[in-house]
Automatic annotation (TrEMBL):
Residues 497-524 form a coiled coil. InterPro entries: 2pore_dom_K_chnl (IPR003280), K_chnl_dom (IPR013099). Belongs to the two pore domain potassium channel (TC 1.A.1.8) family. Pfam families: Ion_trans_2 (PF07885). It comes from Melanomma pulvis-pyrius CBS 109.77. The keyword Transport applies. This is Voltage-gated potassium channel. The lineage of its organism: Eukaryota, Fungi, Dikarya, Ascomycota, Pezizomycotina.
């Protein structure tokens, strides 16, 4: 459990950021690393970096860069084969780590050699964006290889098996991210060719276009480039939306499975320690109390001063008669029988208190989850906003003269995809950082918006609805109910107003009484066909909500036909609950009814059910325990439906159709088919005779049974 980040989050990070490192490595390869800022028309003037003249790199620098790019691609390919289980984990993951470390080392050596042997001469020369792309690629290779080392260490120490345990959404995210960077890098190559831009500038243009920022510092000038913009931007925006959606689902899934459930488990254990451990412990306490009372009564009877001699003698004779008749006063004969009659309702109420505690924990966990997600999204957004402003201030301040607050404004405009264009990256370092920053920062605002919708916006909608009920869209009876809840509001009203309100309330109550009488009559008329349904069937179907007293007084074990019918009604009910918009949360009384049905399908006779209920209570699990159904990852409706279906399968396995009855039904069907064929041939008169004969018994070989009557012993098979 402590290594969940290494086992799940690290592989996702490596797989999604690996293609970005490859794209950065391509940008470092195809772009010269130095720029000449001298103006050819004016020897004393300097050109801006975006219009400077590139200086050709040494040959050794180029081929070392090629080797680094190849090794980086091969390392990413091994990681992809690892995710698809084409190559074993113990082979592919070390290969990825080794290749990325080598690629990082080659780039660092190349950068160091360039800075030592061919550094640009200030102030008329400087490093281009390609140099900064190489630094970024080396940093990503080192970071990703290092975190994969943590994943490998976790496997070596036995914290998880040798494969990436990823869900379908997480695998989809990896594939979508790969295609997105292919689309981004390929589009940059096409636009660099069409517009004559440097590859890094074209990559920056494609990024700004897909993110719908549009600063306006780069735009297509040719007809072919403008025509290509339509399919390129459409495909890129769709891919970006899919990637952001997958990132949000994956982060939500990780938080739900690891962080939220861990917090909920911690709170559950704390609550469990403050309550009664199990219903068995409650029973034990009741038994001990009963036995203590029996011992106290025996001691009191033994004292001559405590009761009259006749009363003491009568008590002793009663005690001795029980022994002489062969019925010793054991726990099962005294305390157990009293518990069976008097303590079942107490057990149900005790379990209901634990059930209510678990429901309260669930509500608190849901509130904590929403607050935690909002805090995390807000923190990530703030970090990218403020830290990004610092980076742009350092990268752009020396060239454009921007101060920190102007870069804060620029980051806000960029991260919200506003893009006025008054500020835009003007240096190679600024555009390199903007590419990385924007790809990671823009999804953060999407996550923040989603979390705000589920928390702040939801609370605002609830508040605005309540305000509307009192103001522009008044709800019927809202003021009268408010006055009834707060009587002090009516102290300032006039006496006539109070009298009018009293008369109005009396009239309204009379109208409501008449409406209730009419509704009851309609229900009685509409439910006349369903009036034959028993209370137990109504409980199973969810038509009537049972009380604790009714549940404690239910019959121990229904017959086979009744059990099959109740299981079918309960299955239909839970299947309907699955179609509702939100997950259904059952009441405690409903859980008790479901548990009884599940237990009935396992028990063989009524004595077994009675003994089990006396020992464990009506509910078989501890609501605050680890195996509580409310701790399951399924919804409550799914959990109950699975258990009810298993119970129905057990019932059918234990109550198979009798062979003689099945053969009789088959013969009866064949006889009916022969009679029907004969009646069609003989005409209407013969048909009437056949119809009259159908009410009598049909004689088959070794089988006589009326057609309209089923054997009583097989009635449950209907």
């Amino acid at each position: 459990r402590d290594w969940w980040f290494a086992s799940t989050a690290i592989p996702i990070l490596a797989a999604t950021l690996g293609p970005l490192a490859n794209v950065l490595s391509i940008g470092a390869l195809v772009t010269f690393w130095r720029l000449d800022l001298r103006d050819p028309t004016d020897a004393t003037a300097t050109l801006p970096q975006l219009k400077a003249i590139p200086i050709r790199d040494p040959r050794w620098c180029y081929w070392i860069n090629v080797a680094s790019l190849i090794l980086g691609f091969v390392g990413n390919f091994f990681l992809l084969l690892n995710f698809t289980n084409r190559i074993r984990y113990i082979i592919s993951l070390p290969m990825t780590i080794i290749l990325w470390f080598i690629s990082c080392g080659i780039l660092i050596g190349d950068l160091t050699a360039m800075h030592v042997y061919a550094r640009p001469i200030a102030p008329y020369e400087t490093y281009s964006g390609g140099f900064w792309y190489a630094i970024a690629a080396a940093s990503f290779y080192f970071l990703l290889a290092s975190i994969l080392m943590v994943n490998l260490v976790g496997y070596v120490r036995g914290h998880y098996p040798q494969y990436f345990d990823l869900t379908e959404d997480q695998r989809t995210l990896i594939v979508q991210t790969m295609f997105y960077f292919i689309w981004l890098g390929g589009g940059a190559g096409v636009y660099a060719r069409l517009e004559g831009w440097q590859y890094n500038d074209a990559l920056y243009y494609c990024d700004v276009t897909i993110l719908t920022i549009g600063f306006g510092d780069l735009y297509p000038t040719r007809t072919a480039s403008r025509a290509l913009l339509i399919p390129f931007s459409l495909g890129g925006i769709i891919m970006l939306g899919l990637v952001v959606s997958s990132i949000y689902r994956s982060v939500q899934e990780l938080g739900e499975q690891k962080i939220t459930r861990s917090h909920f488990e911690h709170q559950r254990q704390r609550t469990e320690g403050r309550t009664v451990a199990t219903s068995l412990e409650l029973q034990r306490k009741e038994i001990e109390a009963e036995m203590a009372r029996e011992r106290a009564m025996a001691k009191q009877a033994a004292k001559p001063s405590s009761r009259s001699p006749a009363t003491a003698l009568q008590y002793q004779l009663t005690m001795s008669s029980g022994v002489s008749m062969g019925r010793p006063l054991t726990r099962s004969s005294t305390v157990g029988s009293r518990m069976k009659k008097n303590n079942r309702i107490k057990l149900l109420r005790g379990e209901k208190r634990r059930f209510d505690e678990m429901r309260k924990l669930q509500q608190n966990a849901k509130l904590w989850k929403n607050s935690w997600r909002l805090s995390l999204s807000l923190s990530i957004f703030t970090i990218f906003w403020c830290v990004g402003a610092v980076a742009f201030w350092k990268a752009e301040g020396g060239t454009t003269g921007q101060n920190y607050w102007e870069t804060v404004y620029f980051c806000w405009v960029a991260i919200l995809s506003i893009g006025y264009g008054d500020f835009a990256p003007k240096t190679g370092a600024g555009r390199c950082f903007f590419l990385i920053w924007s790809i990671i920062a823009v999804p953060s605002i999407t996550m923040l918006a989603s979390d705000l919708t589920s928390t702040v916006v939801s609370a605002f909608n609830t508040w605005s609805s309540k305000v509307a009920d009192f103001t522009i869209l008044p709800k019927e009876g809202i003021w009268s109910s408010l006055v009834e809840k707060h009587p002090w509001l009516s102290l300032g009203l006039a006496k006539a107003t109070r009298e009018w309100q009293t008369k109005h309330n009396e009239l309204r109550k009379r109208v409501e009484t008449l409406e209730n009488i009419l509704k009851e009559k309609e229900k009685e008329e509409g439910s006349s066909s369903a009036g034959t349904m028993s209370k137990d069937d109504a409980y199973a179907a969810g038509i009537i909500s049972p009380s604790l007293e009714a549940l404690s007084a239910q019959a121990n074990l229904p017959d086979a036909a009744t059990l099959a019918r109740q299981l079918a009604l309960a299955i239909r009910r839970t299947a309907h609950d699955l179609t509702l918009d939100g997950p259904r949360a059952y009441k405690y009384e409903e859980w008790v009814e479901f548990t009884r049905l599940i237990r009935f399908s396992v028990a063989k006779d009524a004595n077994e059910v009675a003994e089990e209920e006396d020992e464990e209570g009506l509910v078989q699990w501890d609501w605050l325990g680890e195996n509580s159904p409310m701790m399951a990852e399924q919804s409550e409706s799914e959990f109950v439906l699975d258990r009810l279906c298993e119970s129905l399968v057990r019932y059918l396995r234990r109550n198979p159709p009798v062979e003689r009855f099945a053969m009789g039904v088959k013969e009866r069907g064949e006889d009916a088919l022969r009679l029907r064929t004969k009646s069609m041939a003989e005409g209407d008169a013969a048909e009437g005779q056949v119809g009259a004969g159908m009410t009598g018994p049909v004689e088959g070989e070794g089988f006589k049974v009326p057609l309209h009557v089923l054997p009583e012993e097989h009635e449950g098979l209907n």
